[in-house]
Design brief:
The complex is a heterodimer of chains A (291) and B (332). With 291 residues, chain A is mainly alpha-helical. Helices cover 75% and strands 3% of the residues of chain A. Chain B has one domain: Orthogonal Bundle (ABC transporter involved in vitamin B12 uptake, BtuC), CATH 1.10.3470. In chain B, strands 1-4 form a two-stranded antiparallel ribbon. Classes of the chains: A mainly alpha (291), B mainly alpha (332).
Amino acid sequence: MIFSFDLLIDAIVSGILIGAFYAAVTAGITLSFGILDIVNIAHPGFIILGSYVVYFINAKLGLDPIVAAIVVMPGFYLLGAAIYQIYYVSFEKRGQESIRGLAFFFGILFITEVSLVLYFGVDYRYVEAPYIGPTWHLGFVDIPLRILVPCLVSVSLIAALQLVLTRTFVGRAIMAVAQDELALRLMAVDPIRIKRIAFGISIATAALAGAFLIIIQPVEPSVGREYIGRVFAICVLGGMGSLPGTLVAALLVGIVESLTSTFYGPSWAPAVSFGFLLLTLAVRPAGLLGR
Amino acid sequence: MRSDIFFIISLIVGGCVYGLAAALGNDYYFFAGYVVVQYVVLATAWNILGGYCGYVNFGSAAFFALGAYSTVAMYRLYPPMPIPVDVAIGGVASGVIGLGTGYLTLRLRGAFFAIATLALAVVLETLVVNWEYVGGSRGAFIVRPETIAPFGSYIKYLFLIMLLVAIGSITVARLIERSRLGYGFATIRDDELAAEASGVPTLRLKLIATTISGALMGMAGAPFPYYIGYLQPSSAFGLDYAVNSIAMPLIGGTTSWVGPLIGAVLLGSLQQIATVTISSAVNLLIVGFLLVGFVIVAPKGIIGLVQKYIGRRPAGQVGRRRIKADAPEAAP
């Protein structure tokens, strides 16, 4: 174990940068799992799907990955709305969402992954953009632009989502549906429609998170798995359904992971977030900023 | 049917299966059959926790891999270890970890438990990857003897062991189902709070379930290094074990021991056929679609479909309903 002050600062900065990206990855889970109580363990699968769609557009049309992701977001929104409709009719309505709902999403995760393997193969894919490559050097701290750009866009995404949730009618309805579905019904709002919209938004964020992922690192279909634990760890740590909490927890996990991989070696990094998750679940299930 | 008679009958059935595979005269059937029987064990083990208690375990692969790696560790310690001893050790190791998981996740219900088991799988995989003694990320070689005394080729011996483990786990599952333990598990599945309130020791029952389920999965994994010859973390912790051990009981039906058996035999053979005739990626795709399709269309699995067709009440629900009906009378 080599320790130096430079290394420490550098690890913390890269942890913050990667943490902001984790926040974007988790935002969708915070919406679906945190607010709507839909255990969408297929979310990382949708993120990888997003990565591949962005890769496809980038390779064919040469469009900037982030712009491409924003273009396909409506498509992901519709996909999410459709999946919620299936989920609602087959599980929520019958009141058996727990085991079978979980198995449903597990199956979807698996189908997404295997389909991508069948279509694209298991080779690593990457995108091209002007900001991939250059690095800013501020003293002894290196800031690669390929991580800085997703980090900034991701923070704006969280801010935008938070504004939507707190300032608009639909957003407030989404927050309300988490608390009391019946009350919403009494106010002549269709809770199913609101949930459909919320789930659609949650899947739409996966497209953007997928673009960030493939900008930061080359992607192959099974990369999503290591994000399953991470996103749920962050969501639970952030206090379920709180976007600011998600951001704080994501930065924390990012920093701890980065410190671990700098000082103990990258092969230990995956255990960090999962260890975090197990610890949080065992000690403080309400999370850092619990609701 | 009494359990000892059931056990003898299943031994006879097992003997017939072995005889059939031997009569086909090709070692390939033993290789394919081993995987199917291994899935029977995994599905039955998963169902003890998932089907009877209603706790979804996504970490089946972790318990399986733990059994496999305990064999590797034993192999490093004392090379000529008989496999039944490995199976016992693997079972104990996974059972202990199962008990530990139970303690760690006692307060978690529903989705949180499921996510915690997923987390556990990754933590264990990271530990194994960093543990040089059992090969680390490079993997470990196990030298399998070509032949063994009364059986001829070694795979026949492995198949027989796995068959016995499968018979054992089905017997255990059936015993649990018809005992007070099984009724206790059913109360946890139906309403844990109400069960706790009416004096069911839910905590102890859950610990028993995680331990038995974990131990059986470990026993399924213990002979695996000898089967595959070269074990690496990514193959032992493969997501397909987790998916299959969930999909098989759900497709077969989770309320009784028959469900996982039917699901595992059907899905396992289908995958073996698809691997040979189409490709191994397509066979996984089939599992995914069957899982999603079945949970949407046939929530009670194949057993549910059959019973609806014949018009009988589901076998596993007889006990469950009786408990529900008895509950108000039992309370003073």
